[in-house]
Each structure stands twice: as C-alpha cells, then as structure tokens.
Design brief:
Elements (H helix, E strand, L loop, with lengths): L16 H70 L8 H14 L5 E6 L4 E6 L4 E10 L4 E12 L2 E12 L9 H8 L5 E6 L6 E11 L2 E11 L1 H11 L5 E5 L5 E4 L2 H4 L21 H13 L10 E6 L6 E8 L6 E7 L1 H52 L9 H4 L4 H47 L2 H18 L1
Helix pairs in contact: 1-4, 1-7, 7-9
C-alpha cells in the first residue's frame, strides 16, 4: 500500500495565531475610528460652507434693506420738494423761505447730507449736514461775465427745533462752481421726466456721495434741478456695524467696479483732496486692503461682468503663500447697478472646528490605544493562550510526553474553546492509551518472534548430520560409563 506523500512545506512567512488575532482586532478598531472621523470631518466642511453662506446672506440682506431705506427716504424727500414747488408752497426766489424749507427737510432725516437746488443760470443753494452736528446753508452765486463764483455759508446749530446762527462767511470759490457742470445736475437734465441717481465725489468734503435728483421744468425747459444727497460714508459705517467683530471685509461697488462703500473706509476715500473739481471714485482694482485685493483678483481671473449678475455667486480664493482659504461672495442688490460683496476667511470658522477635530482625533487615538491594549490582553488570555495550549499538547503527544493536566484549565471553559479542549483532551487520552496498548502488543509480538526464532535455530541445529552424529556419540559415552 502506497502512503500519501506529505504536502510540500510553505516557506512564506506567516503571522502567528496571537499576532493574527491582535492584528485583526486593531484593524477593526482603526477602521471604525476612520469611519467615525472622516464623515465627521466631511460634515464639518459642509457645515462651514453653510455657515459662510448664511453669514454672507445676512450681510447682503441687511445691506440691501439699508440701501433701500436710504433710497426710499431720499425719494420721499425729493417728492416733497417737487410737490411743494408745484403747489406753490415753496418759492425758490425767496432766500429766507428756501433756506428755512431746505434746512427743515434736511433736519427731518438724519441720513441726508444735502438738500439742494441748482439753477440753470449756474447758481446753487442747498442745506448741508456736517460731522459736528451742525447744519450749513450754502449759496453760490455764479457770475457769467467773470466766470467766477462767490459763496456764502451760514452755519447753524439746532436747538429746540430752532436754527441758531453760529457764524457766517463769504469767499470766492476756486475753482469756480457752475451748477450745470455738476454730475447730479447733468444726470437729471438728460432725463427731465425721470428721477436720476448719481454717485460721485462731493467737492465740499472729498467723500463719495449719492444724489437723487429731478429736473424742474417750465414751458418744456429745464429751469433747474432739485436733489437730495447722501454721503456714502454712512453706508461704510453701517457695513462696519453689520460686520461686527467677524474677520473679513464687506464692500459695495457698481457695474464699473468703482468702490461705493466698504468696511475699510480708507479704501473708499478717493486720493484727491476735498475741493477738487473732478475727483473720481476708487477703482476696485486699485484697492490696497489685502482681502479686497483677493476679491479684485478673483474678478479679474474669472473675467466677471457683475452687471449681468442676477443671483449671488461664491468663489474660492487660496492665498498662494499661506494656503489660507477665503470665500468671496457677490450678490446683486436690486438697487441701481450695485453689488454687495463679502470676503470671509475660512479660518474664522475652522479654528474652533479644527480644535474640535484635534480633540476628536486625540480622543480616537486614546480610545483606539486603550481598546487595542484590552484587545491584546483579551486575545492573549481568552483565545490565543488556550488555543496555543492545545497546539502545545499536540506537540507533546507527538514527542511522547503528553500530560493531560496541561489541558485541564482550558477544558473547564463553557465556550467553543473549552469544548475543543475537552474533545482534544479525550482524543489525546484515547490516542495515548491506544499507543500504549500498541506498544505492549508490539513488545509481546517481539518476544514471540524471538522465541520462534530460537526454536527454529535449535531445530535447524538438531536436524543436521553433525548434531545427530554428536548425539549418537554422546549416547554411546553414557552407555559405556554406565557399564
């Protein structure tokens, strides 16, 4: 009978039972930790985007409402002046009446900076609010012959709804002031039947302003232009209050990408000084504020035409040096061609989240390490040690020095390993006893074989002629001795 050949040995390195169990447990724990950590990190990223979006929407909606409020108040005041002129409630030729009326309209609404009238002959008069809570009435008399302007300014302080004179002064304006040359006048004169909105730099203060104007028409001829002016610095101040302590910048610009207002008021102020006749609004591409520059670069890279925006848009800017991420939003305001924008550093919201992520990561590592230690101990005591004990018992059987007591502890367990130990112990005892019987039988068989061999050898000797002759001679010798 041919015995089956032994399978070839596998020389590839393999992990032991204990290492395999521990590795499997650690892999399971690590996979669980990753499954917990990465979805949380992904959800955190989505939450950041949602928070940033919500922040921009709050700023955009608040800014739109503020601008709408200013526009509505300005239109209402303009309508009041126009209605008073049509009903002959206001006589612009009466210097005292026009002064009191315009000062009263100005005082009724703190948001107004100017309430004014420019005449077609070049003259101008208007009420102005100053930063020191005083009001001024300006009268600028244009001389067409010398093309010069003599200005008179009366400064008042409001006390108990009365205008108290502070001081008066007169001077020649250089360069001269001619009403029809001003942007607000030209905008209204070009469309006499419509209200005109003009954003330009106020000559008196050198700050950006917005005028809503309407032409005064008589016999189909423009007699002059009435207007209400709002200094746009107050929009910048409103943006600062709306921004609060949150890092980032908020700005308003028009379709020509000229800066109307910003949380950084220094950027809004034109480079020209007050009194310049042709001062221009700051171009958005010329800003120096780093965050506003990021927005400007994004506009240029995307080649965006903000005049075509009808919904808000978000862009991501990554600072090349630091890798800092900035969210840039642009939203149409629904007023004129203005767009409100925000630049929000992602780190504003990721700082706390990253701190929590580090805490979570540390907690996961601590949890994983603790569970790994417990897993190693449990795997070694509850699984590896009993199974290795059974393997050791098998080696003892093979070496013919099996001790059943080595499996006593494992066999007392009530689980599958205990059942395996009991079965193996029983099987080992049976094998051991069977082997001992087999050895005894072999020993007895060996004795029988030796006896048979001896008898056979004796028989072979007795049956030889030499032994027979020797036996005859021995018998003869005995017989002779007896005789």
């Amino acid at each position: 009978m041919t015995l089956p050949s032994q399978p070839p040995a596998n020389n590839r390195p393999t992990l032991g039972l204990k290492a395999t169990l521990v590795s499997a447990m650690l892999l399971t724990i690590a996979t669980t930790a990753v499954i917990v950590y990465w979805p949380w990190s992904w959800i955190s990223k989505r939450n950041i985007n949602a928070i940033v979006d919500q922040t921009h929407k709050e700023i955009a909606v608040g800014t739109s409402k503020e601008v709408e409020r200013l526009f509505t108040n300005a239109e209402s005041a303009l309508q009041l002046i126009e209605s008073s002129l049509k009903r002959d409630l206001l006589d612009l030729s009466d210097s005292e009446e026009r002064q009191f009326f315009l000062l009263s309209v100005l005082s009724s609404t703190p948001a107004f900076t100017w309430v004014q009238y420019g005449d077609a002959n070049g003259d101008f008069f208007g009420a102005q609010r100053t930063d020191d809570d005083e009001v001024r009435f300006h009268w600028r008399d244009w001389d067409p012959i010398s093309e010069s302007t003599i200005a008179s300014v009366n400064t008042y302080r409001v006390e108990q709804s009365k205008f108290v004179t502070v001081h008066r002064k007169s001077y020649e304006m250089v360069p001269p002031f001619y009403s029809p040359d001003r942007p607000w006048y030209q905008g209204a004169a070009e469309s006499p039947d419509l209200k005109s909105w003009t954003v330009y730099v106020y000559r008196s203060t050198g700050t950006p302003g917005l005028d809503v104007t309407k032409a005064v028409v008589a016999e189909q001829t423009v007699q002059g232009v009435i207007g209400v002016g709002i200094e746009l610095n107050q929009l910048s101040e409103y943006l600062q209050r709306l921004q609060g302590d949150r890092p980032g910048e908020t700005f308003i610009m028009n379709s020509q990408q000229e800066l109307i207002a910003s949380t950084d008021q220094r950027e809004v102020m034109p480079a020209q000084i007050a009194g310049a006749a042709n001062a221009q609004l700051t171009k958005f591409s010329e800003v120096e504020n780093p965050l506003l520059q990021y927005a400007s670069e994004t506009l240029q890279e995307q080649a965006l035409d903000i005049a075509e925006f009808d919904v808000w848009q978000r862009f991501i800017y990554t600072e090349p040096t630091s890798g800092e991420i900035y969210h840039i939003f642009l939203s149409p305001m629904g007023q004129l061609d203005w767009t409100v924008g925000t630049v929000i550093p992602e780190s504003t919201y990721t700082a706390a989240i990253n701190r929590n992520k580090r805490l979570l990561f540390g907690g996961v590592l601590l949890f994983t390490g603790s569970i790994a230690i417990i897993a190693v101990v449990l795997a070694e005591r509850l699984v590896a040690r009993p199974i290795l004990g059974i393997a050791h018992a098998a080696a003892e059987i093979e070496a013919d020095r099996f001790d059943p007591e080595h499996l006593t502890q494992a066999s007392t367990r009530n689980d599958e390993i205990g059942q395996l130990a009991r079965i193996f112990r029983k099987m080992a005892l049976e094998v051991y006893e069977r082997e001992q019987r087999l050895r005894h039988q072999v020993q007895e068989l060996r004795v029988e074989i030796d006896e048979t061999k001896r008898n056979q050898q004796v028989k072979e000797i007795v049956d030889t002629d030499f032994f027979r002759d020797l036996a005859i001679k021995a018998k003869a010798l005995r017989n002779r001795d007896q005789s």
